[in-house]
Amino acid sequence: MNRHIDIGSFIVALITLGLFVAALFTQGITHDLFLEAGVFLVSVKIIVMAYKNSVEVGQLNEKLDTILVTLTKKSNQIANKAGGSQDRSNREA
User: Which residues contact 27 (CB under 8 A, 6 or more apart)?
Assistant: First the structure.
């Protein structure tokens, strides 16, 4: 299964789809069927929104990791420069 869609969302979608199909065969095309279709579409929309949210969080985590690596490199460079200048001043004294 895709890592962005959890098993609970998948089960809810299957149950909702099953109930929608059952309502289609038992009630035919009536007003109640449109209500079932609305419930199904709301469930699908929530699952799609959760998927998009998961993808966006993954992209943000990648960007934050890149920023963290860059900041670590810069702080190491600054520490090395500061340490080098302190060593020279200690040698001169």
Answer: 33
